[in-house]
TrEMBL record:
This is O-methyltransferase. It comes from Eilatimonas milleporae. Residues 14-77 form the O-methyltransferase dimerisation domain. Residues 104-312 form the O-methyltransferase C-terminal domain. The keyword Plastid does not apply. It holds the Pfam family Dimerisation. One of its GO terms (biological process) is methylation. One of its GO terms (molecular function) is protein dimerization activity. InterPro entries: COMT-like, COMT_C, COMT_dimerisation, SAM-dependent_MTases_sf, WH-like_DNA-bd_sf, WH_DNA-bd_sf. SUPFAM superfamilies: S-adenosyl-L-methionine-dependent methyltransferases, Winged helix' DNA-binding domain.
């Protein structure tokens, strides 16, 4: 009986050619396929006309996309949407779209030279590129807001707040977490702190959540200056986009604004144990963070060491699973006494 194993050469070729799937999916996002099909099925010729696309190339792309369940094609040449079609447009953003593909294509060079792949591919760092391309950055911000909406309520219920403190969400991107916190702790005094080029989108998201009159909005750059004073400082999925040096700089700036009674809360995803069955996705994400931002996904030990270097002690580390299948971790931190190098890292 013949073996069903395709053999190492075939397996390797399948892995090496996986870019074909990525490029086809990104092409679907680029032509806004989901938008074109949201009102119902279209003939391929009509889609080509509306999108000013080459019909023969489009037909062959759609034939491939059908095998990926991104569209359906009937015998009369009508294409219709699937659940994936309705979401495919969302990936046409600077963190997942053509700009990201170009950064990943620089990986062989970066292996030789080190450095930042996105900057090498585009001639400028990610956030400066985002500031100079507001449309593309807006789609990335919208995607981040959608992700935040999916887990904010679970995180808000787990954060250790008393209910009357001044709370600043640093690098928030939007209002999902603050809106969820206000539902759980209506007495908090919330602030949102964001980069100047991203603050307008953040304000718009506060309006979307109906909390624009309850949140003070401030701008600044955590890598270069301290944030406003507060009782509770929240860094939610911020440090993973930063190198260790930049992360320490951000944490040190936070520490400068904190009193002895202030609390720093970090919401992030920790790198799992090497034996974890989900490690492949984490390792891929870690590499993406490196290539796009120079960031990393850190282990618990690495996070504790980073916080110790910036002058913090870790009071607690807990995990939540907010329903999207991804565990996130909540680290509650306080300023270490001046000159005290001891941290909760000893509890690892």
């Amino acid at each position: 009986m013949a073996s069903s194993d395709p053999g190492p050469q075939a397996r390797l070729r399948r892995l090496a050619n996986a870019y074909q799937i990525s490029c086809a999916v990104h092409a679907a996002a680029h032509i806004r396929l989901g938008h074109h099909l949201e009102q119902g099925p279209l003939r391929i010729s009509e889609l080509a006309r509306r999108g000013k696309l080459d019909e023969e190339t489009l037909r062959r792309l759609l034939r491939f996309l059908e095998t990926l369940d991104i569209v359906k094609i009937d015998k009369d040449d009508h294409i219709s949407a699937t659940d994936l079609t309705r979401r495919v447009d969302d990936i046409d953003n600077i963190a997942e779209g053509p700009e990201a593909l170009k950064a990943w294509a620089s990986l062989p060079d970066i292996l030789q030279t080190g450095g930042n792949a996105f900057e090498k591919a585009h001639g400028t760092p990610f956030y400066r590129f985002a500031a100079n391309h507001p449309d593309k950055a807006g789609r990335w911000a919208a995607r981040n807001r959608m992700v935040a909406d999916s887990w904010a309520a679970t995180a808000a219920a787990a954060l250790p707040l008393d209910g009357g403190e001044r709370v600043v969400d640093l690098g928030a991107g939007g209002g999902a977490l603050l809106a969820a916190l206000l539902r759980v702790h209506p007495g908090i005094r919330p602030m949102l702190y964001e980069l100047p080029h991203a603050v307008d989108a953040a304000r718009a998201d506060l309006v979307r959540h109906g909390i624009e009159d309850r949140v003070q909005v401030l701008t600044g750059d955590l890598t270069s200056s301290p944030p406003p004073e507060a009782d509770t400082f929240i860094l939610s999925r911020v440090l993973l986009n930063l190198s260790d040096a930049d992360a320490v700089r951000v944490l040190s700036n936070c520490r400068r604004s904190m009193s002895a009674a202030s609390t720093l809360i970090i919401v992030d995803t920790l790198m799992p144990d090497p034996s974890s069955p989900g490690r492949q996705a984490h390792y891929a994400h870690d590499l993406h963070l490196l290539l796009m931002w120079g960031g990393r996904q850190r282990t618990r030990a690495e996070f504790y060491a980073l916080l110790e270097k910036a002058g913090f002690t870790v009071q607690d580390c807990s995990d939540i699973c907010p329903g999207d299948g991804l565990f996130r971790h909540i680290l509650t931190c306080r300023k270490a006494p001046s000159g005290d190098a001891q941290t909760a890292g000893g509890r690892l």
